[in-house]
Design goal:
3 strands, 2 helices, 16% strand, 94 residues, single chain
């Protein structure tokens, strides 16, 4: 092999190494994303087996004073929102 072809071969090999590293990083990110989705699915599946579902009432630690067991209500005074009640389910899932 001539020295010119050896240099060309080195350039090709180094570029292929970069593609391999990029492929490994992409596989890592996809696997991480998939595991996060599975973890959230399992979390909500396990939470749904409790006797009292945590998103059905406002008597939980995560609820704010704006929590309301009924429907979402907004109080407007002169076109400005002064108080907005949020359902317990909305507070749980957000």
């Amino acid at each position: 092999m001539s020295s010119r072809s050896q240099k060309l071969l080195k350039i090709i090999i180094f570029s292929l190494v970069g593609i391999g590293i990029a492929e490994c990083l992409i596989a890592y990110y996809v696997a991480f994303y998939y595991n996060v989705i599975i973890a959230w699915s399992l979390y909500y599946l396990i939470a749904s087996f409790t006797k009292k579902l945590p998103w059905t009432s406002c008597n939980n630690d995560f609820n704010t004073p704006a929590c309301d067991d009924g429907f979402n209500k907004t109080i407007l005074v002169k076109g400005e929102v002064i108080y907005k009640n949020i359902s317990a389910a909305t507070e749980y899932f957000e």
